[in-house]
Amino acid sequence: MANNATTALKNGLAALIFNNAALTGLGDAGGLLPSAAAGALYISAHTADPGVGGTQNTSEANYMGYARVAVARTSAGWTVNGANVKNAADVLLPEATGGASNVTFFGIGTAASGAGKLLFKIPATQAYAVTTGVALKIAAGVIDVTVE
């Protein structure tokens, strides 16, 4: 199926999802309104492609000490440029206290733990071997998605 969304819709959805900004001109006068509180999206690490039907815990890293990291749905958390979105600051995953995971994908989802809705999956630019004593740092701009 072809992607038929307009540039205006893609840009508006990116701003709504990542910066909690209203998508104006849709529905009533206010459009699709932002949340009362911006909240956060959660970065997850994955050892394989979680797939388009996966959840946040599909192929999720499981080293001891691992936890998802909250990133605020604001301009401090995400840089939105049209439909393109990048993490605005470094994201530091917790240090491994045991075990190991080979991280090849990152995810952006809705829950701090559990199955949660996986909204975006991003292939890592390289495989990251996380072993005891290692904390994975995802530099600003590395998580790069386009709302299609």
How is this structure best described in words?
The chain has 148 residues and is mainly beta. The chain has one domain (36-146). It has one helix and nine strands, in the order H-E-E-E-E-E-E-E-E-E. The strands form three sheets. It has a four-stranded antiparallel sheet with strand order 2-1-6-7, with no helix packed on it. It has a three-stranded antiparallel sheet with strand order 3-4-9, with helices on one face. A two-stranded antiparallel sheet has the order 5-8. Strand 3 (78-81) and strand 4 form a beta hairpin. The two termini are 13 Å apart. InterPro entries: Gp80-like.
Using only C-alpha atoms, the radius of gyration works out to: 16 Å
Strand content: 25-35%
Q: Identify the strand order in the major beta sheet.
A: 2-1-6-7
Structural class: mainly beta
Task: Report, as a whole number of angstroms, the end-to-end distance.
Answer: 13 Å
Which shape, going by the Cα principal axes? Answer: elongated
Query: Number of DSSP strands?
Result: 9
The H-and-E topology, N to C, reads as: HEEEEEEEEE
Q: Give me the number of helical elements.
A: 1
Reported for the largest beta sheet, the result is: 4 strands, antiparallel
| Nearest-integer average pLDDT | 95
Spans of at least 5 consecutive residues whose pLDDT stays below 50 are none
Helix fraction by DSSP (H/I, runs of at least 4) = under 10%
As for the number of domains, it is 1
